[in-house]
Design a protein that fits this description.
Strand order of the largest sheet: 5-6-7-3-8-9
Bound molecules: adenosine-5'-triphosphate
Keywords: ATP-binding, Nucleotide-binding, Transport
CATH superfamily of the largest domain: P-loop containing nucleotide triphosphate hydrolases
Organism: Paenibacillus oralis
Family: Belongs to the ABC transporter superfamily.
Order of helices and strands: EEEHEHEHHHEHEHEEHEHEEHEH
Pfam families: ABC_tran
Number of domains: 2
CATH architecture of the largest domain: 3-Layer(aba) Sandwich
GO molecular function: ATP binding; ATP hydrolysis activity
Largest sheet: 6 strands, mixed
Length: about 300
């Protein structure tokens, strides 16, 4: 269903640069978020994620380069199309002494939203219907974040820009937000740009990843490519990895076999065939405690990438 929209560009940055004095917060960023993308934005503290999101929101102006939103790049048009975007950047600004509904009424007034059903709809979308009349001071952090998301949804956005929306949430809060975002992406066809330091969670959600390091976008990769990139090692657990590794070396003439710190034998996939490895182990009567292809892991991918770019 989502592939129908795939060629539509929602957000594009071209040569986007932001300097504070002589320091570059962003340097020559070229990136595209297409319709249907859940774009996971990954980078260390201070990498430039928030700055880019603020430029999308018009809160920060680039030093050079440009952005387009929904194909518009002229300043006045950008201001207009920003009304189709929902933002949750840093902590949601909520009034603690007001109820959830009253906070939403306040934002409806600011945004000029008159539809009386909108508040009910967004509360439902973030599973806060039951607590609409509760004061924010009685809300948990997770509830506040979800209400922040509700505010971002008030204008029925086609594009959501979310800066660390799951930061500080407990595991059930994180799952709840993930389900909401999946619902919005799959059912409401909302495209999403989301940053998070919780890479295991981002991996579950995003369809594409962009890695930003010291203000530069150093890599983009689709979720499928991430999956393939990780299937690069055969991992074997046996009671005696040293002996097993030697047998595999001798019988299959495999040069590059390593034993990890967790005593796992690792063989680059291009150097050996899984079936042949299995067959040698069985023939030699070696007890196999586990054998598999390494699973994709965004965190490892990121660490390898950053390690490479730091060296
Ligand atoms: N108003 C400002 N004045 C000066 N420097 C700034 C300003 N805003 C951001 N920076 C600097 O720009 C760089 C990028 O910051 P940014 O907040 O975009 O990073 P981030 O990737 O969002 O980090 P985090 O994960 O910590 O939120 C940092 O070095 C930061 O100190």
């Amino acid at each position: 269903m989502r592939s129908v929209l795939v060629d539509t560009t929602i957000f594009e940055a071209t040569g986007l640069t932001k300097q504070y004095g002589i320091a570059f917060a962003l340097q020559d960023i070229n990136m595209i978020v297409r319709a249907g993308d859940i774009y996971g934005f990954v980078g260390e503290n201070g990498a430039g994620k928030t700055t880019l999101m603020k430029i999308i929101g018009g809160l920060v102006h680039p030093t050079s380069g440009k952005i387009s939103l929904f194909g518009k790049d002229d300043k006045n048009q950008l201001d207009l199309v920003r009304r189709q975007i929902g933002f949750l950047i840093e902590r949601p600004a909520l009034y603690p002494h007001l109820t959830a509904e009253e906070n939403l009424i306040f934002y409806c007034q600011i945004y000029g939203i008159n539809d009386p059903n909108r508040i009910t709809d967004v509360l439902q979308a973030v599973n806060l219907t039951n607590v609409g009349k509760k004061k924010i001071s009685d809300f948990s952090l997770g509830m506040r974040q979800r209400l922040g998301l509700a505010v971002a949804l008030l204008n029925d956005p086609k594009f959501l820009v979310l800066d660390e929306p799951i930061n500080g949430l407990d595991p059930s809060g994180i799952v709840e937000v993930r389900k909401i975002l999946e619902y919005l992406a799959n059912e409401k066809k909302v495209s999403i740009l989301i940053s998070s330091h919780i890479l295991s969670e981002l991996q579950l959600l995003a369809t594409k990843f962009g890695f930003i390091h010291k203000g530069r976008l150093i890599k983009e990769i689709s979720a499928d490519e991430l999956l393939k990139s990780a299937e690069k090692q055969i991992c074997i657990r046996t009671p005696d990895p040293e002996v097993t590794a030697q047998i595999l070396k001798d019988e299959l003439q495999i040069e590059y076999i390593t034993i990890s710190e967790t005593e796992e034998i690792q063989i680059p996939k291009e150097n050996a065939d899984l079936e042949k490895v299995m067959s040698v182990l069985l023939q030699r009567g070696i007890q196999i405690q586990g054998i598999n292809l390494s699973t994709p892991n965004l965190e490892n991918y990121y660490m390898d990438l950053i390690g490479g770019s730091n060296s």
